[in-house]
């Protein structure tokens, strides 16, 4: 019976402790026993988001939280600057269109981070723009955008919002929401949160809360005003996904067990080792200059069919990597670094890539990738103490 | 260590087999192993909904599917007739308001079913109304509305839709979607579906599909056009709640194991026994004339504090019943009949109510309720063979 190994950038492998918590008898969300559970969750979500604001919990995929961000803080006829450097940047743009918000798209080559200058220039062309929408980590390319600097640029005009898709970044990169003045940050359970998909998170600055009060968009299920009213009383506006919340409680304890610095360091080490391994194998990284720690995107070498590579890894080695999305389909493969993974799981993924490339006739030196990664992991595990 | 007994009309007790399925290692939703799982789910959902149409699966609570129904089939400026006989009828009305649809509310006394005449009269006053929105089972009052007759009335005008909240009715009552010509039917996982909250379902007739194509509402996460495109390929538009789907596969096998007739008969027997028991105790039913099989709502007798009763049952007997919602708070208590429940669980609930009433000083003959229920259950179990 083969082990099934999941190394995609979401959904991620879920720790046994979390899975067993989700399998326990449900507690009704209006029963008193639920209150301390949700209170603990709320407190720990704030720690991971590094904010004093409430982190609202929605029963939806991460896209639901992205919709909530747009539908609650912007209004039809508004203008927004959108960083579009991958599938999820495109999603911001589509969401704006769906809600009557005009998007001024800053198109970025897939694999590159947006430059602060490009964003400043967009705001110069559109000084009336009410918001900047950006991914912290663009999951489709493995790029990390310079959120801290972008927040400063967005805030050069008063009342302008920076709305951050942190779906594959919160709990992965050190992104202090309050310290950087991020106005809206969203995330989703199937990433660093060690959970299956089905929960989404959104936090709002005071500036964003003001925008929520004035937005004229049609909204009901994702009307954050309802959630803002009831969450401080440990309730949600509609029936919450209770089993996932039971898992989230455990997951947050695991995430925060060794402190936030250790959480970020683990993701960084897995990403760094993966990059070193791929380069040692002579492969080219899609995002060498500003890599996300959520996943590493690797260009498929000439002569190899990217779809066949991912399929082969799955069929022969029982391991699920991610391919490319949209125009990157067949061009890249992606190795995820979130979820219930450690250095040895990443070594396994690197070995699987080595073997699969050899199987498909690409000249690769077996063991060169794992050797490079092992050097980094030895150091990482040693420093971890 | 007390057993925790959940007898609310959702969330419901989840069978061990379903909980363990949800605790298994996740299968990625883009991996080939997911396809047969979702294909089986799709086929079995159609059987429970009694439709040849696709039953779309959303990652949200049931309210998300209600929003999807309104936002996809109606447009701002449309007029709709709304049956408002409880909290969820009010929700239809609020959703209409949120999406710019004018609601002509047919207000029904809490505990009564709407009369076909009242709906016909509303359409006579508003012949241009594009839809009728109604609950099949109004969970807040335990009323079953006469959906079959209402569908006939709605369809007296061509292209008029009947939109049915079947959240606590599908898999409970025999509601043949296609045979009755229901245009939109929604449901949610934490009811008859033996699952935790977090999944919602919606099915659309050909007439409704046509309306989806012409609706001008803002929508993205709940844009059913995206789901209609991809679900026949065993995909969802956005990341699905995979662990809940793994549970749904098992739950559907359980629901369909003895056939639909047995599924409906079980809910009916649990409801009938509960009603008989409550009447034997001298209590008054809120909905004696057209009771839902999803839950039984019972008027709290004079001199007893309804909130105290529910709290006492929970504190002393480790059992969660539901109180009343909105204006019914403190006036009623509700015993749920959905989820992993059998006759013996209902007997336990009846006994808990008997004991709690006695504890609170209400003159009740201990054992009269369980006796009445036992007579019905003996017959039910005997007929079941």
Structure description:
The structure is a homodimer of 385-residue chains. Helices cover 43% and strands 14% of the residues of chain A. Chain A has 2 domains: 16-256, Type I PLP-dependent aspartate aminotransferase-like (Major domain) (Aspartate Aminotransferase, domain 2); 259-384, Aspartate Aminotransferase, domain 1 (Alpha-Beta Complex). Chain A is globular. In chain A, helix 11 (260-280) packs parallel to helix 13 (343-359). The longest helix of chain A has 21 residues, at 260-280. Chain A has 385 residues and is α/β, with parallel strands linked by helices. Chains A and B meet through helix 1, helix 3, helix 4 and helix 10 of A and helix 1, helix 3, helix 4 and helix 10 of B.
């Amino acid at each position: 019976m083969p082990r099934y190994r999941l190394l995609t950038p979401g959904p991620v492998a879920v720790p046994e402790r979390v899975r067993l918590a989700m399998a326990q008898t449900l507690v009704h969300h209006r029963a008193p026993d639920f209150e301390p559970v949700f209170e603990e969750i709320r407190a720990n979500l704030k720690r991971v988001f590094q904010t004093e604001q409430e982190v609202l919990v929605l029963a939806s995929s991460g896209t639901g939280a992205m919709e909530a961000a747009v539908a609650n803080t912007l209004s039809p006829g508004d203008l927004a600057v959108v960083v579009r450097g991958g599938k999820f940047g495109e999603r911001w743009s589509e969401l704006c269109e769906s809600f009557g918000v005009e998007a001024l798209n800053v198109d970025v080559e897939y694999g590159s981070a947006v430059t602060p200058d490009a964003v400043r220039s967009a705001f110069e062309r559109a000084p009336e723009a009410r918001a900047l929408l950006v991914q912290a980590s663009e999951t489709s390319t493995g790029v990390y955008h310079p959120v801290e600097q972008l927040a400063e640029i967005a805030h050069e005009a008063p009342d302008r919002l920076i709305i951050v898709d942190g779906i594959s970044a919160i709990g992965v990169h050190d992104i202090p929401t309050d310290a950087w003045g991020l106005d809206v940050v969203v995330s989703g359970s199937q990433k660093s949160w060690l959970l299956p998909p089905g929960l989404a998170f959104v936090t709002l600055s005071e500036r964003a809360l003001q925008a929520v009060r004035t937005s004229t968009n049609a909204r009901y299920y994702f009307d954050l005003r309802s959630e803002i009213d009831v969450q401080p009383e440990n309730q949600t506006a509609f029936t919450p996904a209770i089993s996932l919340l039971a898992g989230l409680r455990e997951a947050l304890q695991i995430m925060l067990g060794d402190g936030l610095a250790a959480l970020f360091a683990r993701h960084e080490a897995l990403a760094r080792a993966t990059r070193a391994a791929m380069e040692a194998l002579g492969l080219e990284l899609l995002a060498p200059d500003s890599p996300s720690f959520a996943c590493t995107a690797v260009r498929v070498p000439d002569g190899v069919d990217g779809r066949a590579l991912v399929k082969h890894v799955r069929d022969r080695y029982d391991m699920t990597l991610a391919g490319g999305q949209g125009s990157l389909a067949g061009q890249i493969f992606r190795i995820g670094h979130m979820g219930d993974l450690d250095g040895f799981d990443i070594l396994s993924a690197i070995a699987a890539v080595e073997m699969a490339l050899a199987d498909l006739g690409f000249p690769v030196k077996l063991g060169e990738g794992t050797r490079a990664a092992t050097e980094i992991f030895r150091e990482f595990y040693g420093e971890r103490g």
